Amino acid sequence: MREAVLHSWSGGVLEITLNRPARLNAFNDDMHAAMAACLDMARDDARCRAVLLTGAGRGFYAGQDLTARDPAKMSGPPDLGETLTRLYNPMIRRIRALEKPVVCAVNGVAAGAGANLALACDIVLAARSATFIQSFARIGLVPDAGGSWMLPRLIGEARAKAIAMTADPVSAQTAADWGMIWRAVEDAELMTEAKALAARLAAGPTFGLGQMKSLIQAAAGQELDAHLDLEAESQRKAGFSADFAEGVSAFLEKREPKFGGAR
Ligand code: T3D
Fold first, then answer.
1. What's the whole-model pTM score?
2. Where are the domains of the chain?
3. Is CB count within 10 Å lower at the N or C end of the chain?
4. Roughly what angle, to the nearest 10 degrees, separates helices 242-252 and 206-219?
C-alpha cells in the first residue's frame, strides 16, 4: 500500500509530503497517525533543524476525508468534537510547539483543515495557482484546526468572517497581499524556493529560531509588560547559546557564521 505521508531528509531539513493525491491529500485516520509520527521525529531527531511540508499531486490538502463521514454509511451523526480533540488539535499543537521552523509549500488547493494546517506553519509559500478555501460553510461546519483563531489575527475580523461564511476561494496572491501567507511564487519555482528557504533556516541558529517562534506565538495572548519579561528570559537563554558566540565572532572577524544549532 502506498505510504500516505512520506518523509525524507535533505541535510538538516525533514521534508514531509502528504501523499494521497487521488483525494487531494484529504486526511483519514492513518494519515493522522503518520503525520504525528513525522512531527514527533522532527521534534526528537537532533538532525532536524527545519521542516518542509508539502502535498503530492495537484492539491495540498483538502481537509477531512469526507468519504469517512458519509451519512448513508453511518448509524448516526459523528462526534466531530471527538475527532478534533483526538486528531486535528494534536497535529496543530505539535506544529506550534515544535521549536524549529516549519516551512509550508502550498502546491495546490488547501481546503478546510488543509487550509488551516498551512496557516499553522511558520512560513507559508504558495504556488500562484493554489487557492485557500475555508470550505466548512459548504458542509455546515465551522473553521477548525485553529482557523477561527488564526484567521482574524492574520487578516482581521472582516476578511476572516467573509471567507469563512462564503467559503469563497482565496488566491495565493490575495492571501499574500492580505498577510495570510508569506509569499506567492510561480508554480514552477515553488519547490526550489521552499527548499532553499528551509535549507537556509536549517543552517541558522536553531535554538534562537525556536525561541523566536515561541515568543511571537506567545505575543497574541499577552500584555506588553508580561511579554517584555518573556523576551528578556528568551534572550538570556539565547545569549548563553554557542550560536550567539559564533554569530558575534563571525561578525567581528568579517566572515559568515557557522551555526551548530545547539542550545
Ligand atoms: O473529523 C472531522 O470530520 C472534523 C474535521 C473537519 C476538518 C475538515 O477539513 S472539514 C472540510 C472537509 N473538506 C472539504 O469540505 C473540501 C472538499 N473538497 C472540495 O470541496 C473540492 O474537492 C476542492 C475545492 C478541494 C477541490 O475541487 P476540485 O474541483 O479541484 O477537485 P475535485 O474533483 O472536487 O476533487 C478531486 C478528487 O478528490 C475527487 O475524487 P474523484 O471524483 O476524482 O474520485 C474528490 O471527491 C476527492 N476529494 C476532494 N476532497 C475530498 C475528496 N475526497 C474525500 N474527502 C475530501 N475532503
1. 0.98
2. 5-202, 206-252
3. N
4. 110
